[in-house]
Amino acid sequence: MTSIGKPIRTVVYDPVELPVRLQPAEAPAQLPQEPEQGPDPEPVPSRAP
Amino acid sequence: MRIPDVAGYAVGWRIWTSEKPPSPACLSSLRGTRWPHRTPLIAGCRTKDVLPSFDPQYRTRLHDTPDESCTCGIYAVRTEEQLVSEHVGLTTSALIMRQMASEFPVNHIIGKVALWGKVIEYTDGFRAEYAYPLELWAFEAPQAVVSDLHLGYGVPVHRVSTREFLSDFWSRA
Predict the structure, then answer these.
(1) Which residue of A has its CA nearest to B133?
(2) Judging by beta carbons within 10 Å of its beta carbon (0-12, 13-18, 19+), is residue B61 exposed, middle or buried?
(3) Residue among B30, B4, B36, B3 at smallest CA distance from B15
(4) Which of residues 15-34 of A touch B (CB under 8 A)?
(5) Which of the listed residues A10, A11, B98, B125 has the most CB atoms within 10 Å of its CB?
(6) Is B42 in contact with A3 (Cβ distance < 8 A)?
(7) CB-CB: which of B4, B75, B127 is closest to A12?
(8) pTM
């Protein structure tokens, strides 16, 4: 196993920009999409006067 | 939610073997983990699967990867010189193997890698949560493999003659 010496510190890196555009590491589960709005209301027939 | 300490990534060095065509990829030398194309490699803790432990709680404990109290994570060293010094015997073996092999030889690849997420920094290297290659040098690789690695990872890939590389390395040492 590669020797990496002694631990110094723990850092959390946020790669703002990698040289390569990567796909997400874990694709979110595909949930069935619900319509943003309900179906159009049925037209109400106008009554003749 | 974690608050990042640094915007950017750490840069380390790795060695792999090359997966055979038709879809060449970098395989970790130790466990054969395939580094995926266009997707970060994510560290996972397999310590409980591989290493015996005298502490049953340790074996079953779930933790973030890498964890300070574990040996898990994606390993990389800090410098090319350090990497080659440790693996020069391996590289020499690869040269001998290539001379003996009649089929596609087992090629070695070294490269710079980006490391991010949770990274435990060591005096000589890193253990990281995420990683992706930045630039690769493929030893004695056929041009088709070099091209496929470049297309697959989208990073610069160079073909390297093992003999010339070792000669250059020893002249710099």
Answers:
(1) A20
(2) middle
(3) B30
(4) 15-16, 18-26
(5) B125
(6) no
(7) B4
(8) 0.76
